[in-house]
Design brief:
Elements (H helix, E strand, L loop, with lengths): L1 E5 L5 E6 L2 E7 L6 E6 L7 E5 L6 E3 L3 E4 L3 E5 L25 E5 L4 H14 L4 E4 L5 E7 L5 H5 L13 H6 L9 E5 L6 E2 H5 L7 H13 L4 E2 L1 E6 L2 E4 L5 E2 L2 E8 L5
Parallel strand pairs: 1-9
Antiparallel strand pairs: 2-3, 3-4, 4-5, 5-6, 7-8, 8-9, 10-16, 11-15, 11-18, 12-15, 13-14, 17-18
């Protein structure tokens, strides 16, 4: 569901005020206000609050876009502005989810544009992960020349809540469960054919491995020495072609468990 409002004179724009950049928009109707704020340097997510402080949350998906004297704030997945987490996406009616708010500005437009530009940069991630998708495996592969210690710095602290871990920031996840996330590197960083590297993955079938090999080759990756493999997780890449600790996102593949 999408709604559109006209901002009133009470709109507030804060740029780098006590390390906070935010846009507080008010209108004269149901909902009353929208607050979008960047206030944590170690967290790439933006704080969103619509109509009530109890609806406040750090968003994994919010996207901001500028139009003709208007700004659109859009969520995806199961996040909504009114009840930002609603549970099982298969039980949800997408038409009832408030996921898009467009606000028209009649004043302070230059300030709003400057603020939105900063918010978009703050919320810029390489992607985000949905770690509730069973029977899906996401894979990153490639070649690194880093030492083991240098390579492992990327995932240091991945099970600590927050975004202090570089991998967490890149994957848009505040917590990475090592029961499902695996990292691998060959001995002495030896580069091997992609067919051999794929055999080390924690996938569930040869069929899945073949799909990964085909996709990797289509991306020009025919060999490597390292990978990340995240079972039961779907990664949504927002900046195509990004590198993740020297590795390329190959894709998310259907990978049903077979007993």
């Amino acid at each position: 569901m999408a709604v559109r409002f006209d901002a009133n004179d009470d709109t507030e724009v804060h740029i780098d005020y006590e390390d906070i950049t935010g846009l507080f928009v008010k209108w004269d109707s149901v909902g009353d206000y929208l607050d979008i704020t960047a206030d944590r340097e170690d967290d790439p997510r933006l704080y969103c609050e619509y109509g009530d402080p109890s609806n406040g949350f750090l968003s994994d998906t919010v996207c901001l876009s500028i139009g003709d004297h208007c700004v659109t704030f859009k969520l995806s997945g199961t996040e909504t502005f009114d009840e930002h987490k609603l549970g099982d996406p298969e039980c949800l009616d997408e038409n009832e989810l408030l996921q898009e708010i467009t606000v028209v500005f009649h004043e302070k437009w230059d300030e709003v544009v400057a603020c939105v530009d900063i918010l978009k940069k703050h919320g810029k991630r390489k992607g985000w992960v949905d770690d509730s998708t069973w029977d899906v495996t996401s894979v990153w592969m490639g070649t690194t020349h880093k030492t083991i210690d240098e390579f492992n710095l990327y995932t240091e602290g991945l099970e600590s809540l927050g975004f202090s871990c570089p991998a967490c920031r890149d994957f848009g996840s505040s917590f990475i469960d090592t029961d499902w996330f695996y990292a691998y590197g060959t001995a002495d960083n030896k580069v091997i054919p992609i067919e051999e590297l794929v055999c080390e993955l924690t996938t569930n079938s040869v069929a899945t491995n073949q799909k990964i090999i085909e996709k990797a080759k289509s991306l020009g990756i025919t060999e490597g020495n390292s990978y990340y493999c995240w079972n039961n997780a779907t990664f949504h890449e927002e900046i195509p072609g990004s590198l993740y600790n020297d590795l390329t996102f190959i894709g998310s593949f259907e990978d049903p468990f077979k007993e």
